[in-house]
Specification:
By secondary structure, this protein is α+β, with helices and mostly antiparallel strands. The chain has 39 helices and 32 strands. The strands form nine sheets. Strands 15, 16, 17, 18, 19, 20, 23 and 24 form an eight-stranded mixed β-sheet that branches. The longest helix is centred in the last third of the chain and has 42 residues. About 2% of the residues have low confidence.
């Protein structure tokens, strides 16, 4: 007997409370067919779910055969559903990837019944519903009526006490509905059947009892069951058995589910196996990688030149300094010092490339037989702009990252400049045969004229997003905004970019070439060259009139090329550099600098002249001398000469006359000459210039504000007071005062007797000293009038350009000026690149350079050159590097394992969403939360195992052609990649563990799904 006692159930949605069942009580017989009728929202489905243990009541009690469910926990409800309840749903709720027989067996599987017993009982259940021969089919191969009968068989297979049917005929036609209802009526003869329906006719024709619900309350009951409470035993708590699902069953469910998604499962497993493949290959190849790298060195040597720069250093010597010391026998009780810094700095110097070029030009046949080409490069950098009508933007040399200390312009040293460069444009070698056979032309052609360029793609046919800004395909303001946020350590939002472009989109992209010497304009008044780069209008006009440069080709490295000469970017021919040099040679400013090597043409001063200490700013400022005199006042009240302090106690001084200070001061003349005024102005303006530099004040529009702020500083006031004191001394003011005082003293002293002369004179001398100390304090300065005495003679724009020109802190020289102007001497290159023909001829070239050095040591030690052998330097410690690379590669590949685990977690989560109804079905048949979690853990286990096996299998397959490839490249059979068995097992186990770890969270989420909501999922 089933008793529903005062059941109350409500649902809360925010502040809204919906009462589904309101104090419902109902006694149900052990074998009757009860139909529950009612409109939608009346609570009938909620009542059915509570009876079935899928939903929980808020108040009341559900008593089954005298067993109370008030204290039931999750596992008790699971057992109750598995052993007592059978469900028949409107939409059948069969698991689509399971056969009919497996669907019926599912409840028995959860109960822990053996396989043979499960099959026997499932076939019997199918026989009862007339489907004993349909067990091999999938649900999608059956009609609606057949699927509902399968659902009834599944509900009966565990011989439940109660069968619950929710709209069992709602999705069936009339004839099929009658068949299903007949079957349910037959079932109701030996057990309780509770059916929820909207169809009163079906209820009347088949049910033995009809209960009507409305607004959560029972309105009528056609055949109520009144229980004699005197004979009832009080409800007690007791479990109804235990539901269990072993791991093999979980594996079976998950495996069958994965079989329905073969493509996705294989792709997921393959993605998860990539990391395993990577690590397995690294482990397999690590033993032979040193020999492989050595063979690659010989193959690619010709692509890496011997490079000699005007600022040269011997990298091999730098790296070997510490190593040579370590080979000596050392006392372990002492600390030794390695000469790293000394050795490094001693290898850096200036190479005399002019002499070397002359030597190579005089002996061309001697070295040409060993080289493919000898390339000379110069420091003449083309000034290239991306031009449009709204904005002028320099793209070469690149200025985009200057604010954060990157770019070729951030260092005046050529070596450091190249290391920090962010330039997209660069010069190609003059000898086209060095690179043309390494590339496929995707569009257009190689440059034929000096003003033509070629776009060089990466080996995979891509280009960087930074290139889009240079090419004008994206707005530079977007890049500037990101750089500004980066410098301020603000969050940078990811910018969506277009993924692909057509080759034709790149052709004929135009830029403007500007002559570097045209940046400067001569100022006749100050006889200096003003930098006009900050003058927008000037630069707009300059760029508009510049020469056109365009992209005429797009190239990509060939697939079979192991090393390439050109780097990704925009490459221009060497003829463009020569064109820039020729233009510079014709400019007036370059001619002036060449004609006067000791004079800086930008300042018209000698290079050793300290500009910041000698620049005369008097021409910038107009001085009003009358206002300067008004600015300085003498407070006579602060000057005192107290005769009463004289010690004449033995003499009657009451009749002595007092000194009239006012009369004395009226006779003193305070005259200031123009030279003295100019001197004060000069001192103040020089100190003001230092004040501007120290505080980095460079805004010409705020110069008056800066000057007023400067006058308020203690340094300015102290300087003015000191200068005024000197002025007073130099103007004779103190002498005049002393003369007038002497006259007064003479007049006064003539009235005293000779007896008092010595005493009074001593006292007066003391007073004069006191008076002299008071004098500087009597002087005051009116700062406002002093500020009004100075006026600027130049406009803001003129002042800006002049200040920029005159206040540069960068050290300049004759050579650096010419470099800035784009000039270069063809006989004095900035770098020489020697391209040996092969590995053997490289040593021949190095021998020639060594012979040159031996010759120069005898002539001039300064002419000895140092050079960089990139390949030799890299291979000097190749074993250590390869070991480090192996570890780093394993670490990076290990990251891919973590990524794959995350991906497995995402895939498992998607599977949870896809199998939500299956979760509801399993929970309805008594599966516990742990069983549900186990199902999805089994799925991740299968994927992890498959990923591991797939990874090892693919690795073993790849090793066959891999070893053949290694043997072919190395020309020997000594390098064999073999994957250890132990390593393979560990990698498979690692794959399984990581995928299980990745699927834990989705599996846990699946176990906490509400079965009622899950069953409603479509």
């Amino acid at each position: 007997m089933l008793q529903v006692k005062n059941i109350y159930k409500e649902y809360k949605t925010g502040n809204l409370v919906q009462v589904a069942l309101n104090n419902v009580s109902l006694n149900l017989r052990d074998n009757e067919f009860v139909a529950i009728l009612g409109p939608s929202g009346s609570g009938k489905t909620t009542l059915l779910n509570i009876i079935g243990g899928l939903d929980r009541y808020d108040r009341g009690d559900l008593v089954i055969n005298g067993i109370s469910t008030k204290q039931y926990k999750d596992r008790d409800w699971d057992s109750y559903r598995n052993h007592t309840i059978g469900f028949v749903f409107q939409s059948y709720n069969l698991i689509p990837h399971q056969t009919v027989l497996a669907n019926v067996e599912l409840a028995l599987t959860i109960s822990g019944i053996s396989k043979s017993e499960r099959k026997k009982r499932a076939l019997e259940a199918l026989k009862k519903v007339g489907l004993e021969n349909q067990g091999h089919k999938k649900p999608n191969q059956m009609s609606g009526g057949q699927m509902q009968r399968v659902a009834i068989a599944r509900a009966l297979v565990n011989d439940p006490d109660i069968l619950l049917a929710d709209e069992p005929t709602g999705a069936l036609d009339s004839d099929t509905s009658i068949q299903v209802m007949d079957l349910l009526k037959e079932v109701a003869k030996d057990r309780l059947v509770v059916m929820v329906t909207h169809n009163p006719k079906l209820a009347k024709d088949y049910a033995t009892r009809i209960v009507e619900l409305k607004d959560g309350v029972i309105c009528s009951d056609s055949h109520p069951y009144d229980v004699d409470k005197k004979h009832l035993v009080p409800p007690r708590h007791r479990t109804m058995g235990k539901a269990s699902m072993n791991f093999l069953t979980s594996l079976s469910l998950s495996f069958n589910n994965l079989k329905t998604k073969k493509a996705r499962t294989l792709l997921t497993s393959f993605a998860g196996s990539i990391g395993i493949i990577g690590i397995a290959l690294i482990l397999s190849l690590s033993t032979g990688v040193n020999q492989y790298v050595k063979s690659i060195e010989e193959e690619t040597l010709s692509e890496y030149p011997l490079q000699i720069q005007n600022t040269g250093f011997d990298m091999s010597s730098m790296l070997s300094n510490g190593q040579s010391d370590s080979q000596k026998k050392k006392d372990k009780s002492k600390i030794y010092v390695s000469s790293m810094v000394t050795g490094m700095l001693s290898t850096i110097g200036s190479n005399d490339l002019k002499s070397l070029k002359s030597y190579l030009d005089k002996n061309p046949d001697h070295i040409n037989q060993y080289t493919n080409s000898i390339e000379y490069t110069y420091n003449a950098i083309p000034q290239i702009y991306s031009y449009n009508s709204q904005q002028v933007r320099q793209v070469h040399p690149d200025q985009s990252f200057k604010s954060i200390g990157l770019g070729s312009s951030t260092s005046s040293n050529s070596m450091m400049s190249s290391m920090m460069s962010t330039d997209v444009f660069y010069q190609m070698p003059n000898q086209s045969s060095l690179y043309e056979n390494q590339y496929d032309i995707k569009a257009g052609n190689w440059p034929k004229k000096y003003n033509e360029c070629v776009l060089v793609l990466n080996s995979n046919g891509s280009m960087s997003d930074f290139m889009l800004y240079t090419l004008g395909l994206r707005d530079f303001s977007e890049l500037d905004s990101m750089i500004e946020k980066f410098s301020k350590e603000e969050k940078i939002d990811e910018v969506k970019i277009k993924d692909t472009y057509a080759y034709k989109d790149m052709l004929n992209k135009q830029f403007k070439l500007v002559n570097a010497s045209d940046y400067y304009q001569y100022d006749d008044q100050y006889q200096v060259y003003k930098n006009k780069k900050d003058d927008q209008a000037y630069m707009q006009s300059l760029v508009e009139n510049g020469e056109d440069i365009k992209i005429v080709g797009v190239v990509q490295p060939k697939d079979d090329t192991s090393a390439t000469m050109l780097k990704p970017g925009i490459a221009y021919p060497a003829t463009l550099t020569r064109h820039v040099i020729n233009l510079a040679n014709q400019s007036e400013i370059v001619k002036k600098q060449l004609a006067h090597p000791d004079i800086d043409v930008f300042t018209n001063k000698s290079f050793d002249y300290q500009q910041k200490n000698n620049f005369d700013m008097n021409s910038l400022i107009k001085v009003d001398q009358s206002k300067i005199q008004e600015a300085f006042k003498i407070d006579q009240s602060k000057l005192s000469f107290d005769t009463k302090s004289i010690d004449l106690s033995q003499i009657d001084t009451s009749q002595l006359p007092a000194i009239d200070i006012n009369q004395m001061m009226s006779k003193v003349k305070f005259n200031v000459s123009k030279e003295q005024t100019d001197h004060i102005v000069k001192v103040i303006t020089e100190d003001f210039q230092k004040y501007l530099v120290e505080n980095n004040y460079q805004d010409p529009t705020k110069m008056e504000i800066y000057f007023n702020a400067y006058l308020q500083t203690s340094r300015a006031q102290t300087l003015i007071q000191n200068e005024m004191t000197k002025l007073i001394q130099e103007s004779g003011l103190a002498e005049q005062f002393q003369n007038e005082l002497s006259k007064e003293m003479s007049t006064m002293m003539s009235q005293y007797s000779k007896v008092l002369e010595q005493t009074i004179q001593a006292q007066l001398t003391k007073q004069m000293g006191h008076l002299a100390s008071q004098f500087p304090k009597a002087i005051s300065v009116d700062e406002k009038k002093l500020a009004q005495a100075f006026q600027m003679n130049m406009s803001q724009d003129e002042l800006s350009e002049l200040i920029v020109s005159m206040m540069q802190t960068e050290t300049t020289s004759y050579d650096s000026n010419l470099t800035h102007l784009g000039y270069a001497n063809y006989d004095k290159p900035s770098a020489i690149n020697l391209y040996p023909k092969d590995f053997e001829t490289k040593q021949k070239v190095k021998d020639i350079l060594e012979k040159y050095n031996e010759k120069m040591k005898k002539v001039d030690e300064d002419k000895v050159i140092t050079y960089t052998d990139y390949v030799g330097t890299i291979m000097s410690s190749v074993t250590d590097i390869i070991n480090v690379i192996s570890y780093v590669l394993i670490a990076f590949v290990a990251i891919s394992l973590v990524v794959s685990s995350i991906m497995i977690g995402v895939i498992t989560y998607i599977s949870v969403l896809e199998r939500k109804k299956e979760i509801g079905i399993l929970r309805a048949m008594g599966a516990s939360k742990g069983n549900i979690s186990q199902v999805f853990n089994a799925e991740t286990f299968i994927i992890g195992l498959l990923s591991g096996l797939l990874g090892i299998g693919i690795t073993l397959i790849l090793l066959v052609p891999g070893n053949m490839l290694i043997h072919s490249i190395a020309d020997n059979n000594s390098v064999n990649a073999v994957l250890p068995i132990g390593g393979a097992i560990i990698l498979i186990a690692l794959s399984v563990c990581l995928t299980l770890l990745g699927g834990l969270i989705p599996a846990r989420k699946a176990s906490h799904e509400d079965p009622v909501k899950a069953l409603r999922t479509e």
